C-alpha cells in the first residue's frame, strides 16, 4: 500500500519533469523550501515579544529578533543563492544530467537511505565544524560570520560566507550521489536536511520538536545548537549527539 502511495507521488512529480531538468530548479527549490520552513518561526519571532504563551518556549527569553536582523540574514541568503549556489547548480546540470526512473523507491528503502544520508552529513558537518573552531585561522576567515548572533533564530540558519555555504552545500549534494539513492529520496533528504537545520537555529524549544521525539538523548535539536552559539566550544554536530559524546564536546545546558 505504501509503495502505491509513493508511486502515485512520484508519478505526480514526474509530470513536471521538464521543470525538474531545468538548471534553475535546484536553486529555486532550495530557496523556496528554506524560506517556507523559516516562515512559521518568523511569525513566532514577531509575536513572541507580545504574547507570553509563545515567549515561554523561547530558549533565550530575554532576547528579541528585530526586523533589521531578519532582513540582514535574508539578504545574505539570497545573495549566496544567486552568486554561488546558482552557478554551481548550472555546472552540475551541465556536467551531470539528472536521470529520472519511472519506478518509485520502496518505503523501507527511502527510510534507510534518508537515515544514511543524514548520518553521513552529520559526521561530515561535525568534522568540518570542529576544525573551523579549533583552527583559529579557519574560524576567523570562514566561520566567524555565522556566529554573529549568539541567540539563534530561523533566518540565521544560512547566515554564512561563501566557503561555508559551498562546502556544506557540497556535502549535502554529494551524499545522495555517493550512496546511490533514488531521485525522490534525494529531494526528501534535502527537504529533511533543511528542516532540521532551520529547526536547529529556530531558538524555540517546542513540545513537538525533533529532539523531544527521538529518545535517549540521541538527537540534540535547538537547545543543543543554541548552547553552541552561546558557548562556541561545544556541540559541534548539527543533529545527533554521539560524535560530541565520543569527543567530549557535548554540553547539555
Automatic annotation (TrEMBL):
Domain annotation Fatty acid hydroxylase: ranges: 115-249
Origin: domain of life: Eukaryota
TM stretches of this protein: 24-48, 69-95, 107-131
UniProt entry keywords in alphabetical sequence: Membrane, Transmembrane, Transmembrane helix
An individual GO BP term: lipid biosynthetic process
A Pfam family of this chain: FA_hydroxylase
Cellular component, GO annotation: membrane
Subcellular location: Membrane
InterPro entries for this protein: Fatty_acid_hydroxylase (IPR006694), Sterol_Desaturase_Related (IPR050307)
GO molecular function, a single term: oxidoreductase activity
Protein name as catalogued: Cholesterol 25-hydroxylase-like protein
Amino acid at each position: 500500500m505504501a509503495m502505491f502511495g509513493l508511486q502515485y507521488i512520484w508519478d505526480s512529480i514526474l509530470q513536471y519533469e521538464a521543470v525538474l531538468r531545468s538548471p534553475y530548479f535546484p536553486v529555486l527549490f532550495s530557496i523556496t523550501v528554506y524560506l517556507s520552513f523559516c516562515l512559521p518561526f518568523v511569525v513566532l519571532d514577531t509575536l513572541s515579544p507580545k504574547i507570553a504563551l509563545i515567549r515561554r518556549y523561547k530558549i533565550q527569553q530575554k532576547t528579541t529578533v528585530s526586523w533589521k536582523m531578519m532582513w540582514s540574514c535574508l539578504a545574505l541568503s539570497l545573495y549566496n543563492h544567486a552568486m554561488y549556489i546558482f552557478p554551481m547548480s548550472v555546472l552540475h546540470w551541465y556536467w551531470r544530467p539528472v536521470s529520472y526512473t519511472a519506478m518509485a523507491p520502496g518505503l523501507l528503502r527511502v527510510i534507510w537511505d534518508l537515515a544514511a544520508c543524514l548520518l553521513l552529513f552529520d559526521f561530515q558537518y561535525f568534522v568540518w565544524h570542529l576544525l573551523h573552531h579549533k583552527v583559529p585561522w579557519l574560524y576567523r576567515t570562514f566561520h566567524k560570520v555565522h556566529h554573529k548572533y549568539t541567540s539563534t533564530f530561523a533566518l540565521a540558519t544560512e547566515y554564512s560566507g561563501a566557503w561555508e555555504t559551498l562546502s556544506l552545500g557540497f556535502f549535502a549534494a554529494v551524499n545522495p550521489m555517493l550512496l546511490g539513492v533514488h531521485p525522490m529520496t534525494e529531494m526528501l533528504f534535502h527537504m529533511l536536511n533543511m528542516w532540521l537545520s532551520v529547526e536547529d537555529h529556530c531558538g524555540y524549544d517546542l513540545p513537538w520538536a525533533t529532539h523531544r521525539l527521538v529518545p535517549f538523548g540521541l538527537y540534540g535539536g535547538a537547545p543543543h545548537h543554541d548552547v553552541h552559539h552561546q558557548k562556541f566550544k561545544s556541540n559541534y554536530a548539527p543533529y545527533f549527539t554521539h560524535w560530541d559524546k565520543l569527543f567530549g564536546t557535548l554540553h547539555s545546558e
